[in-house]
Design brief:
Distance between the termini: 26 Å
CATH superfamily: Ribokinase
CATH class: Alpha Beta
Bound molecules: alpha-D-ribofuranose
Strand content: 15-25%
Number of helices: 11
Helix content: 25-40%
Number of strands: 13
Low-confidence stretches: none
Structural class: alpha/beta
Oligomer: single chain
Number of domains: 1
Length: about 300
C-alpha cells in the first residue's frame, strides 16, 4: 500500500464559476421567479475533483481550459492556493470561462444549468502535452463536462501508461462504448446512469439492472452514487449496496465530486474496493453538509473524524 501523500492523480476536466441561489421551487418556462441568498463559488466537476484529491492529501495536476477573463483569473488563483498543479490549464482567448447556474431547493436538492464555455475547447492535444505528468501519476480521473474526444484521449493515455483510470460520468450524457471500455471504474449518479444506459432508473433494483447494462456494453466496474441511499458496486462478481451516512443536507453540489476523488485516491493507494467505497461515501456525505462546491469538499482529517465517530 502506498501512503496517500505519495499518490499523484491527474484530473482532466472542467472549471466553472458557480452562481448559486436558494429557490422555493423550479421555475416554469416563461416564469420570472424570485430567489434569495445569491453566492458565487469556484466550481466545475474537474476543478472540484482536483481540489478534493488535494484536500484528501494526494498530489494533483489539473488539465483544463478557462477563458481569458476575470473569472478565469479568479478560478486559477483559487486552484493555485489549493495547491493544484495548474501548468496544463490553458487560457482560451475566444471563449468565456464556464459558468454554472445553480438553484438549491428546500428539499436539499438542486438543479444546475451549465454553459461550458472554454471547457468545450479542451482537446486531445491538451492531454498529449501533459503526458509527462501522466507518466508519473498513479491514477487518471476524468469527467464528461469536457468534449468526449478529450475524455477518450485522457482515458486512453492513462490506460496505455498502465494507470488506474476512473470516469466520473457527470454531467448526464451518453458516451461512446470506447470511453466505457477505457475506464477501469465508471462512477455515475442515478441520472447519469440513466443517460449512459438508456434505462429508467428508480430504486435499487433498477440501479443494479442499468449498471449491469453498462457491464454488457464494456464497462468493468460500475460504482453508482445514490445520494441519500448510499452507493452500489456492480461488477462481474455481482452487486453490493453500501448504506448512506445520516447527515443534515444543506447543498448536494459537488458531493459526487468528493465521492469520485476519494474513491480514486484510496484505490490508487491500494485500498480494497469495499473500503474505498465506504470512504468515498463519507467524503460525499460531508460535502452535502456545507454550501457551495469548493468550500464543501472535506479534508482527509475531516473524513477520518467523521468515520471515527461511527457516522
Ligand atoms: O458537480 C458539481 C459541479 O457541477 C458544480 O460545481 C458546477 O460547476 C457543475 O459543473
Amino acid at each position: 500500500m502506498k501512503q496517500i501523500k505519495d499518490i499523484r492523480v491527474v484530473v482532466a476536466g472542467s472549471n466553472n464559476f458557480d452562481i448559486v441561489v436558494n429557490a422555493d421551487r423550479t421555475p416554469k418556462e416563461g416564469e420570472n421567479l424570485l430567489a434569495s441568498n445569491l453566492k458565487f463559488f469556484p466550481g466545475g466537476k474537474g476543478a472540484n475533483q482536483a481540489v478534493a484529491v488535494s484536500r484528501l492529501g494526494a498530489k494533483v495536476t489539473l488539465i483544463s481550459a478557462v477563458g481569458w477573463d476575470f473569472i478565469g483569473d479568479f478560478l486559477l488563483r483559487n486552484l493555485e492556493t489549493a495547491g493544484i498543479d495548474t501548468r496544463w490549464i490553458r487560457r482560451d482567448p475566444n471563449r468565456s470561462t464556464g459558468c454554472a447556474f445553480i438553484a438549491i431547493y428546500p428539499s436539499g436538492n438542486n438543479s444546475i444549468v451549465v454553459d461550458p464555455g472554454a471547457n468545450f475547447t479542451l482537446e486531445p492535444a491538451d492531454v498529449e502535452k501533459s503526458k509527462d505528468s501522466m507518466a508519473t501519476a498513479d491514477a487518471i480521473l476524468t469527467v464528461l463536462e469536457i468534449p468526449p474526444e478529450t475524455v477518450e484521449a485522457t482515458l486512453r493515455a492513462g490506460r496505455d501508461a498502465g494507470k488506474l483510470t476512473v470516469l466520473d460520468a457527470g454531467p448526464a450524457r451518453r458516451c461512446s462504448l470506447e470511453i466505457l471500455k477505457l475506464a477501469d471504474i465508471v462512477s455515475p449518479n442515478e441520472s447519469e446512469l440513466e443517460a449512459l444506459s438508456g434505462e429508467r432508473v428508480e430504486g435499487r433494483e433498477s440501479v443494479r439492472k442499468a449498471a449491469e447494462k453498462l457491464l454488457e456494453l464494456g464497462a468493468q466496474t460500475v460504482v453508482v452514487k445514490m445520494g441519500s441511499d448510499g452507493a452500489m458496486l456492480v461488477n462481474a462478481e455481482g452487486a453490493k449496496h453500501f448504506p448512506a451516512h445520516k447527515i443534515t443536507a444543506v447543498d448536494p453540489t459537488a458531493a459526487g465530486d468528493a465521492f469520485s476523488a476519494a474513491l480514486t485516491v484510496k484505490l490508487a493507494a491500494g485500498v480494497g474496493m469495499d473500503d474505498a467505497i465506504r470512504y468515498a461515501n463519507a467524503a460525499g456525505a460531508l460535502a452535502v453538509t456545507k454550501l457551495g462546491a469548493l468550500p464543501s469538499l472535506p479534508t482527509w482529517d475531516e473524513v477520518d473524524v467523521f468515520l471515527a465517530k461511527g457516522n
